[in-house]
Amino acid sequence: MRAMLFQEVGKPLRPVRVPVPEPGPGEVLLKVHACGICRTDLHIVDGELTEPALPLIPGHQIVGSVAKLGDGVERFREGTRVGVPWLGATCGACRYCRSGRENLCDHARFTGYQRNGGFAEFTVADARFCFPIPGGYPDLQAAPLLCAGLIGYRSLVMAGEGERLGIYGFGAAAHIVTQVARFRGWRVYAFTRPDDQAGQAFAREMGAVWAGASHERPPEELDAAIIFAPAGELVPAALRAVGKGGVVVCGGIHMSDIPPIPYDILWGERSIRSVANLTRRDGEEFLALAPKVPVRTEVTAYPLSAANEALDDLRSGRMRGAGVLVIDEG
Ligand SMILES: [Zn+2]
Ligand SMILES: [Zn+2]
């Protein structure tokens, strides 16, 4: 099969031909139709996430169809269309797994990081961690739901209840969470890099009531803010934008250092928290909710062989909505 292989930090992914993997017990072999690109992929290839299983096939927003069942898999049949998210496996036994917090599992293994992912024609996944894809979503439009959508959803839940939501960084996750937030009665205020007029226009198209530069103060005090951009200086900016009791949710897996903050911007019961990974329950809830909103994803498509160009476009902020590798539309 064709695959894009990550072998060394700082080097582009290499197009290779490797054998089609065999599903082990409890696993499924998937024919990959599409695989979304995520900022986490950049953190992996740039070496900011330091524990990849090399050589590695990245990609953790996989839409594919079941091509072969490993021993003991009864959940799916051949041909079923499924999605594979970032959470690839958990231990099921640690104190986090036993308390409904498998996203924090001490021994979790992540797709496209410690398990091979979807930048390839086939991949193998643990059947227990795959999701059926809701009907009505073509492969390309479904792929971004699996991380941008899921992490965005978990971040929104962590933002709590309120009416005025700030979103810092308007990429794949933001464009989805904006739609869900509006559906739940929030007014969305979008913050982008100061010179990113296209990003601000995109945010307004998606239903943001206001869009401006990240250092600006929004016209109303916010109830909560979600930061998707990996820039630590946004944390004090967001704390200054939220009112008393407001929460600032950091939705990314990596962020540059947060500068020192004066206590008075945290005072008034403001809080800062991160969101880590996802649980299968998040996936089930979000994939049931998405068609009701209905969430529509804007995608920029690339062929598998252009994975490096797609990552560069994401890095430079040139990508509108979510980037998706199209592997075999079918
Ligand atoms: Zn991701
Ligand atoms: Zn565990």
TrEMBL record:
Residues 24-134 form the Alcohol dehydrogenase-like N-terminal domain. It comes from the Bacteria. The keyword Zinc applies. Its cofactor is Zn(2+). CDD domains: CAD2 (cd08298). SUPFAM superfamilies: GroES-like, NAD(P)-binding Rossmann-fold domains. Keywords: Metal-binding, Oxidoreductase, Zinc. InterPro entries: ADH-like_N (IPR013154), ADH_Zn_typ-2 (IPR014187), GroES-like_sf (IPR011032), NAD(P)-bd_dom_sf (IPR036291). This is Zinc-dependent alcohol dehydrogenase family protein.
